[in-house]
Amino acid sequence: MQIGIHLPHIGRxxxxxxxxxxxxxxEELGFADVWVSEHxxxxxxxxxxxxxxxxxxxxxxxxxxxxxxxxKLGTSVLVLPMxxxxxxxxxxxxxxxxxxxxxxxxxxxxxxxxxxxxxxVPFRERGRRMDEGIAMMKAVWNDDPVTFSxxxxxxxxxxxxxQPKPCEPIPIWIGGSSDAxxxxxxxxxxWHGGGRIAPxxxxxxxxxxxxxxxxxxxxxxxxxxxxxxxxxxLRARLEGYKADGIGHVLVAPEERGLDEYLAAVERVARCAExx
Length: 275
What we know:
Blueprint: E1 2-6, H1 16-29, E2 33-36, H2 57-66, E3 72-75, E4 78-79, H3 85-98, E5 103-108, H4 113-119, H5 126-142, E6 146-148, E7 157-160, E8 172-175, H6 179-186, E9 190-193, H7 202-212, E10 219-225, H8 231-244, E11 248-252, H9 258-271
Parallel strand pairs: 1-2, 1-11, 2-3, 3-5, 4-5, 5-8, 8-9, 9-10, 10-11
Antiparallel strand pairs: 6-7
Helix pairs in contact: 1-2, 1-9, 2-3, 3-5, 8-9
């Protein structure tokens, strides 16, 4: 089972030095990948996320990529329907090339209606915009010239060109546990579940995913916390995920200070030994 770690790009510990140190630490400790999340703008009195200080995920990963050589770079998750696919496709292709093929695109439909409203994106169209946006990005990543007929996203693409192309295909893992999310994941490269999924629900989800995609190229991933610093609880949780057939786990430390975060990452590495 592969283990990833979430970078400190949110809240008071976020900053260029924190991100650099964390990315280097993750690579030195042998983690498979480092991850970032996304919120662009949030209501002042929102209960979640706990901080509005969200550094941009693509730029954060670009910064991390510059200080590492091996560790992969993932998004947990980009809210694709909030963004226009064409500039995002350009950014992701550039990051894939700058990192020499290390990007994993974790993607979801989003849930914060006010955020969509601030960006002028119809909230109730987000599933359809998600599917069309992914198809549009894959088209400009693969076709040259490209023609694409869009219905839900404002775009007129007729015999046009976008470069650079990704040096390697960008795997797309879909976040969410709804029927639509699972079905969408089965059409792509992986599933990236959130930490709010009850443990007793996991076996059925894994069984459904493996029934639809038995091939080894399909990744089943799950995001979890660091169990509040309780190493015994985290080790038992990771062992349970492995027994359930989860092939990749992203651990997101919840410590608010940088020193506490870095120490938590070391604990996670020890908990993951031998898995």
